[in-house]
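Posting for a labmate who doesn't have an account.
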Amino acid sequence: MRPVWTIVCQQYRHNSLHFCLGLAVALVPAVAGLLLLGVAGWFITAAAAAGLSGAFLNIFAPSAMIRALAILRTAGRYGERVVTHDTTFRFLTGFRNRLFSAMAVRGGEGRRSALLLNRLTLDIAALDAIYLRLVVPVVVSLVVAGGLLIVWGVVSIALLAAGAAFLAAWGILAWLAFARSDEKTAMRSDAALDAMRLRAADLAAGRRDLAIYGGLEGAAEAVVEADRRLASAEDLEDRRAQRLGALATLTGQAFLAAMLVVCTFQAMAAFSPALAVGLILAAMGLAEIFAMTLPGLARFPRTALASRRLLALMATGTVNAPQPVKPPGTPRAEAPVLAVMDLSFRYPGAVRNVVERLSFEIRRGEVVALAGRSGCGKSTVAALVARLRTPTGGEIRLSGHDLRFLEDAVLRRKITVIAQRAFLFNDTVAGNLRIADEQASDQDLWHALDQAALADRISESPEGLNTILGEGGLGLSGGEQRRLALARAFLTRPDLFILDEMTEGLDAATAADVLDRFFAFRGAAGVLMIAHRKQDLERADRVVVLDGRNEAG
């Protein structure tokens, strides 16, 4: 309950005016609908009685009231949809952005990217039920219930007793929907949905290898099995929702019968038959209003589960995030570009550190290579220096300043990473290059491409810089993708370059050309090179070897 209440409070603080306005507008169609039924019932009955008795009845006021209520109900329903959904979507947009920022601070913490994507999509989508299907229906039901109790009490004590019994029955039904909500079923449904999406994504990504090595059928069956588990969990939830719907219908019909009996007897003594018919017809609309609360209460476990996970992710990013500040002035000339002191790091759930008390320095213009066997922590050190991960011990200083307290924008200008895999997006060539410098002109882009020996290849396309690349750089070969990443780096002038297996997978001639072009460009910037190939290590001024204990050797 507490995570859901936290989300409600956050949405209220996000825009209290629209939050309250949505509740007020939601009351309009509910109240107008009840009044429309009551006034119409009273008017028809009163008109019939007047016609039979020959008495005078002013038909203009009630008919005008009926038309006004009908228009108000229609406009109110439309306005309620617009205002409440706009309020919800604006809040969720901001919440998603804050969550993404918190996740970016922690770098995923070992979670699969697909699971993090599920949190950003499925869990965020589940939060729309909090305001739309919980807060709004519950508040509307409580306000309507309070108003009806006053009206019933004024008209007749017997009517008040019947109405109070009905409201008590609805309260019990709502409590059953909430208290007996099956959290385990919601968790099973959620886990099955995650499994199905992950397995389907893995199947699509690895279908060629699976087809070649005979694992396609098993992978497809794993997706189908997850779908079966999802359908089974959803079937349980659907049956429970159907039972609640049946009980709600039974409660509404029982109340209508009770109102019919009470109003029939009261019409002979306490009030007129026209008022009795109006009260009975108004009672017919109550079941719909109170039934709106049941779907949200029935889905409460799923909503609470999503809220709990999202708040935990956001809290992790917020609590553990360093508070960045701008560098306090120009660094001392003697300060190294990079100083790593007693650096340690352990992955979540691991039994030992992957990096243990590592120390080294890189001076301006110096090239330092990290070498060692696979899995010794070279790429982890690169991620720590780039602040893509947070060390568990030790300190990293960039130009004399603690890396933790640099503004992200400042840090990204001072460090450029060229990795083994070129991270390219489904965008134009220019769009992929301007990630490094949004203000770069077309001439700057062509110059960078020429330095990376890719200008001729791009100029072959009729669209030139506006050539669309597919996801991951589809349309370019592996070597061309690497050169495009190099051209992007040529648009920056950092203090430190990090080369993480930059030439891995390239033939010797291409690798040598890529390195030659890089070192001709890099100027006086320091270079941290993660490498194991001899021709790469020969470019380094010093080689720091990580031994079996992950210490500098």
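Reply:
Got it, the structure tokens are right above this. Residues 318-330 have pLDDT under 50 and may be disordered.
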